[in-house]
Each structure stands twice: as structure tokens, then as C-alpha cells.
Write a structure and sequence with these properties.
Order of helices and strands of chain A: HHHEHEHEHEHHEHEHHEHEH
Number of domains of chain A: 1
Strand content of chain A: 5-15%
Shape of chain A: globular
CATH class of chain A: Alpha Beta
Helix content of chain A: 40-55%
Structural class of chain A: alpha/beta
Oligomer: homodimer
CATH superfamily of chain A: Divalent-metal-dependent TIM barrel enzymes
CATH architecture of chain A: Alpha-Beta Barrel
Number of strands of chain A: 8
Chain lengths: 324, 324
């Protein structure tokens, strides 16, 4: 992250006391403000008030059995659960739906590591066929959708579509068919922008949003604070570009891709303002690693320390949501 | 433009009466709003109030002589002038600066049709050398900067860099050197995202902003409503992504690329809200054509009709700025 962005985020934080004093108000003073004004535009409040729906990925939830994991989420202020990829949704979907009965948790996304950049149509078709039953299973679970990044390979390699060809084929063929299948089953595909070292194709939320809009019903986009920090210039701006197409958010530390709250750099207020402006009610889900075990880096952190860090993250994110 | 965006823009307009009633306010009610609230975030007012600085491109300004053109701009509420490309700034810079003395007009940008995507370093170097003296001339004129799109050619053709190679070379070499030269002479290079049929490389404001941020001092980005309408999902979001790096804006009709105000689709309120949030004081400059002459399509519109349409545009944009 460059110095400019650092400064910008600090400015937002510093400004938040002022901003708190200058937030939204009832009818009376609007005209006076416009005339005398602090230069703020007349923004339309969201049609629904945003909610901070915190979420954990399956593997990171304390507890062994399904019930134990769900109990932990409910007891500690989480609203959502993100499930594993592959055929997990097909194998475990029914059991999870059963275990969720009477609980207030919703199923966010499952990740589908994918690649639709093969020049050979047969290889792309294999990818499509692989995901159709997963999408059906996600639909049955009322999951938000299947996370997809259209290309992870090097597009300049032989046997790959060019970026332009890939975009066209994904919008009109592979992505379109997956999205239509998802819409039919009441779920969606969720395009995930990654970092430049991970994908040559989709790096920014606005780009994913435009691809999703071009595809139409059943396609949406997500933002991951960790990737966004490198690839975007504004968390708030990027989320606004996603608009109503934003269906999922990943969060991690901004200095290290570990659980938020370990480093003072973990400041999400600007992004949360964007989510509030959108009236966002999707999940904000932790995806990342853990600090090293200072006693033995090879062993990983003991579970009780991980649990302490999870609760610390919940406190931190709620605090910053209130500031936003 | 897809149906979704249409709806979104209409919603913003419909909402503006409500939004007017729910704009910013003084200290008293902020806490109550946060608790009871309409869900609006605590946004930081811009450090300076934005201004609608209307601007025309040289060729579109009524009048033959330099003085006549500048008189027209001043008399009709324009704040800025956009100058021709090529060696015009070198040949006419001093005369223009002289003619501007005592006037309140500033010199926005000049356009530099360019291509930095050649695989041969010598060809890229030629492009750099071509623009160095133009940048110096722009600096002397206190112009905002030189508009550049890094690639117009097909990157998949032989003899071209790949998108990834071009980005790296532009950020570290060609664009970097032009930007450093610009910063040294008190001006900037202004990256312009275009449409997908015009460039395979830079289509979104957030992308241009990230490239400019990666380059550093002397690099900035612009937004053109005409291109943005196809390539972005949110005018406001895209402008927020540009942030302080936004130094220029082009505007045209949204249904046809002609002077704004001819079609009812020409609604810029959402984008203007973004400019207000940024405290933007750069130019908003008309770039586009004219409606056909209904009497003789080959002849073009008579000057008096063009002038009428310019004044109509000024009225319309001011009206929408006030609504934003």
C-alpha cells in the first residue's frame, strides 16, 4: 500500500469525529447546509439499513462437530457461515441445513477454484460441468453463491484465451451459463477479484461488477479487503462500484493476511462506509491465516489463543462499524 | 447501458427529493440518527467545497480568433479551456497565456494521442521523446496536464507488449518518466480510460487511478462520462476510486456522444455527487459531436444553433449540479 492511501485512510479516521458531528439529519437543515454548506452532496439513504453480518470459514471455526461449530458462531455474534469448496456442499448440504434449523445463521458462499481461460472449448466445458451440480446444491441450501475467479493461469501462455477473448466467452458462454443455472436455483456466481500475482484477468471490484452486470441475473461480485488493499485506490469507491451486485466480502489483516486486530494497520472504516451506503447485508467473512506461535512457529497457535483472536476481531470490527 | 444501471440512475433521481431532506446536518442529531437512523454512514465532508468548472474544447468554442473564443467562455459561465493536441501547446502556449491575462479561465488539459505498447523499446522511446517538450509547454501554461491512454493498438498482435508487460513498463519506465517530467514542470499526465473497442488496456477509472498511484507524483486520472457509461457500473463509485488523483472530466450526452441536453437520458447527478464528495475543482469539459442538421445532414448545424445548445448545456449541468 502506497503512502497516499495510508494518508487517506488516516484522514478518514481523524475526520471521523468531525464526520460524526456532520452526519445525516432530518429535513430542517438540509437547505441551510446546501447554501452555507460544507460541500456534501445530497446522498440517497440506502433502501435498507446495512448490517455487519460477521462470518467465519468452516475450517477456522472452533469445534470439531458441525453442531459445536454452529454453537460457537451463534454464541459469539456471528451471523453467517462460509462453507468449503469442492463437493462439500453436495455431500454435506442436507446435514448443514438440518443443523441450522432454529438458528439465525445464513450460509454465505462456497469457493470454487476454477479456470475458464483454456483455449480448447472442451476444457472449458469440463469446468462448467464440474460446477453445475455444486451450484444446484448451493441453491438447495439457500447459499449466497459460488465464488469464482475466471482465470488463474497465465493468459499469455499457449493454449489460453487472450484477456479479451476470455471476457467475451465468460460473459456470453461459460459464466453466463453458470449464472443462469444459479439464478434458476435461487443462488448466484460470485466473481472474486484477486491480486495481480494470482490472476492476470480480474483484479478490481469495478471490473468484476461490470462483468457481472454484462452477464445479467445470477452473477454478482465480491470484495476481499486483502486483495483490494493492493489493487484498489479506495475501499469505499470500490464497494460503491459493486453496488447491488455486491454479495460477499472477505476480510483479513491489512499488514499481514491473518486475523484482523493483530496489527494497528487493520482499519476498515472507509470500506464499512461504502457497505453502509449500499445497505449491504451480505456476510463479512474472515479469510486468512493466523499469527505464528511465538513458542514454536511450526506448531501453529493453540486453539484457545485462536479463539481469543476471533473474539478480539469481533470486538474490533463492531467498533469500526459503529465509527463508519 | 444495461437496464440495471438505467434503473439505478432513475432511483437516484427519484430519491433526490428524499435525499435533499436527508442531507448533512450539524452536530445535534448525529447520535440520534446513528441510533434510530436511516443507515447513512458518517462521511467526512471534503476539505474544500467542489466547484462545477465548465469547460469547452478549443475547436468547439464559438468564435474565430483566440480573443473571441475566450470572450465567449467568460461571458457564458465557463471556467476553463481545453486545448488542442500535437504541437499546438508549443506553438500557441505563450499567446494563450498572454490572452488569458486578467481573465478567470484556467487551462485544463491537452490530448496526446499516444501508444506505449510497442514491444520494441526504440518505438516506445520515440513516443516518450515526442511528449517531453509538449509537457514542458503545458507546464509553462500552468495547464492541468497531458491526456494519455497507454495503448490503443491490439495487444494480442505481434510486436506488442502483453497487458501485463505494458502495465509494468508504463508504471516503471514510459509513464513514470513522463510523469516525473510533468511533476518537475508543474503539470501532470492524465490517464484516460476508454471503451473496450478503443483500447484493450485501460477501460475503468479505478484501474487508471491504481496505475497513477503506482507511478507516483505527476500521474493522475480522468473520467469521461461517455466511456464510463459503458465500462463502469457506478459514476459515483468510479469517481470515488479516482479520489484526489482525479484531475479532469469529459462529459457528453449519454444516449448519443453529442452535446449534453439533447436527450432526456442525459442525467449526471450520480456522478456529480461523486465529484462533490471529492471536493473536485477540475474542469468538466464537453467532448463530443453535435446533432445532425435536420435540413441537411451533410452541412452540420449552423453556428447559432450550436451556441444555443452550448447555453442549454450550461443551464442543464448547473441544474443537475444543484440537485447533486
Amino acid at each position: 500500500m502506497g503512502g497516499r492511501r495510508e494518508m487517506k485512510r488516516r484522514d478518514f479516521l481523524k475526520g471521523s469525529a468531525v464526520a460524526g458531528a456532520a452526519a445525516v439529519c432530518g429535513a430542517g437543515q438540509a437547505a441551510a447546509q446546501e447554501a452555507g454548506g460544507d460541500g456534501m452532496p445530497k446522498l440517497t439513504p440506502p433502501s435498507q439499513k446495512a448490517q455487519l453480518n460477521l462470518c467465519l470459514q468452516w475450517g477456522g471455526i472452533p469445534g470439531g462437530e458441525m453442531k459445536e461449530k454452529l454453537d460457537f458462531l451463534e454464541a459469539n455474534g456471528f451471523a453467517s457461515v462460509e462453507i468449503p469448496s469442492g463437493d462439500w456442499p453436495i455431500k454435506n448440504g442436507e446435514a448443514l441445513v438440518e443443523a441450522l434449523k432454529g438458528r439465525k445463521l445464513f450460509i454465505a458462499t462456497a469457493c470454487g477454484p476454477s479456470d475458464f481461460s483454456y483455449a480448447e472449448p472442451e476444457k472449458r466445458e469440463e469446468e462448467v460441468q464440474k460446477f453445475l451440480p455444486v451450484i444446484e446444491a448451493l441453491g438447495k441450501m439457500k447459499s449466497v453463491g459460488l465464488i469464482i475467479c475466471p482465470a488463474r493461469g497465465k493468459l499469455s501462455e499457449p493454449g489460453r484465451l487472450s484477456a479479451k477473448e476470455l471476457r467475451k466467452d465468460f460473459v456470453e458462454n461459460t459464466g453466463k451459463r453458470l449464472a443462469e443455472h444459479a439464478a434458476k436455483h435461487g443462488t448466484s456466481i460470485v466473481l472474486e477479484p484477486l491480486r495481480r500475482n494470482e490472476t492476470p484477468f480480474l483484479r478490481q471490484v469495478a471490473d468484476g461488477a461490470r462483468i457481472a452486470a454484462d452477464i445479467g441475473p445470477g452473477a454478482s461480485v465480491m470484495g476481499d479487503f486483502w486483495h483490494m488493499q493492493l489493487e484498489e485506490t479506495s475501499f469505499m469507491g470500490a464497494f460503491l462500484c459493486a453496488g447491488k451486485l455486491l454479495t460477499h466480502v472477505h476480510i483479513a489483516g491489512l499488514k499481514e493476511r491473518i486475523i484482523p486486530g493483530v496489527h494497528p494497520e487493520d482499519v476498515y472504516v472507509d470500506g464499512f462506509r461504502g457497505l453502509k451506503l449500499l445497505g449491504y447485508r451480505g456476510a463479512v467473512s474472515f479469510e486468512g491465516g493466523w499469527p505464528k506461535n511465538p513458542e514454536d512457529p511450526k506448531k501453529g497457535l493453540p486453539q484457545e489463543e485462536r479463539t481469543r483472536l476471533i473474539l478480539n476481531m469481533v470486538r474490533l470490527l463492531r467498533e469500526q462499524w459503529a465509527m463508519a
